[in-house]
Design goal:
alpha+beta; Alpha-Beta Plaits; three-stranded antiparallel beta sheet; 11 helices; about 60% helix; disordered N terminus
């Protein structure tokens, strides 16, 4: 009786038949794993080199991504290369393909997570604790990790032949429900991130909106806390704050101040003509101050209204107040020397 040949040779016979291909594939795989190990070591050194720096550069971003290359990914990549050179039995090839899909998807999620977090950390700047993102980094790490690994699982199931349409639809409906339930919280969170990336102000800046002026003390996930000029703390929702017109008083090289004073109608025209020069002398006597203009603006009920505008190079609030007071005193002193009187109130 004739014996039918088997469709697949025994494992030992397969090893013997493909020993040269396996040796060649093993050498290539060994070289690839060596390159990945070198790249991971270089990445770790790049991160360690700039770990003491207060700023994160693109070198550190790339280093963090390379340093997160995992050993399982290297092992599976090596097995896949060997299987490419020496064609294994169908069952083994199927297992190798499944392992490649699973490990590659998770490795891609790890790389993407590290890249996103490193770019965000680079955006934080030289004082992570002082910014919105520094306070929210743990939450952002969780959100990014959940999103990327959920996407990796969906990709794995889809490549393994599982119908993920219902799963994706369910996740979408669940996300919409959660978003509607926490709409206010998410709006403030996104507003906080907008403050971070757009940078209309930072901690320590003095800002003014509506009729409120204060120094920013903390930018949180939901609210921004400021200290007003009178000493009390102002707490404002991030969404409401961004809806207003914000004046960042710290973002500038100088500050302009306006002084309005009224002289009597009985002041001689010759004296009125000398007022701008007197004001210029009073302003320039104050260090760092420069006069912009001093002009008559209106005939008020009690006299002739004047407007003095000067520029001060300092941005410190106490120094601005002291210079304003000094200029007012100098102006009053020079008016007294010239026998120029201020108008009496009605």
């Amino acid at each position: 009786m004739t014996r039918l040949p088997t469709q697949s040779p025994p494992v030992f016979d397969w090893f013997v038949a493909n020993r040269q291909e396996m040796l060649l594939g093993g050498l290539v795989a060994l070289g690839l794993v060596g390159l990945m190990l070198i790249a991971r070591t270089i990445g770790q050194r790049m991160v360690a080199t700039e770990s003491e720096s207060t700023t994160i550069g693109w070198r550190t971003v790339i280093g963090r991504v390379l340093a997160r290359t995992t050993i399982p990914f290297m092992v599976v990549a090596a097995i896949a290369i060997v299987a490419t050179y020496a064609v294994p039995p169908p069952r083994i090839q199927h297992l190798v393909d499944m392992a490649v899909i699973i490990v590659a998807a998770f490795q891609a999620a790890i790389w993407a997570r590290e890249l996103i977090l490193a770019v965000i950390a680079r955006r934080v700047g030289d004082d992570p604790g002082a910014t919105t993102l520094g306070n929210a980094m743990s939450l952002i790490r969780v959100l990014v990790s959940v999103l990327l690994f959920a996407l990796a699982i969906v990709v794995i199931l889809d490549n393994l032949g599982v119908n993920v349409t219902a799963l994706v639809a369910g996740l979408g409906i669940g996300g919409i429900a959660i978003g509607l339930a926490a709409q206010g919280i998410f709006s403030d969170l996104f507003a906080a991130l907008a403050i971070l990336f757009d940078r209309p102000f930072r901690r320590g800046d003095t800002i003014r909106f509506d009729k409120t002026t204060g120094t920013v003390e903390r930018i949180g996930l939901k609210t921004t806390r400021m200290r007003s000029l009178s000493g009390e703390q102002i707490i404002m929702a991030n969404t409401k704050l961004l809806e207003r017109e914000i004046h960042n008083l710290a973002d500038g090289r100088s500050r302009r101040t306006t002084l309005v004073f009224i002289l009597p109608f009985a002041t001689p025209p010759a004296m009125l003509a000398r007022v701008p020069d007197i004001a210029r002398t009073a302003v320039e006597a104050c260090k760092g101050c420069k006069i912009i203009r001093c002009v008559m603006t209106a005939f008020a009920a009690t006299g002739i209204e004047h407007e003095l505008i000067f520029e001060n190079r300092t941005l410190d609030g106490d120094r601005l107040a002291a210079d304003r007071s000094a200029i007012m005193l100098a102006l009053a002193t020079r008016f007294a020397e010239q026998d120029i009187a201020f108008a009496e109130p009605a």
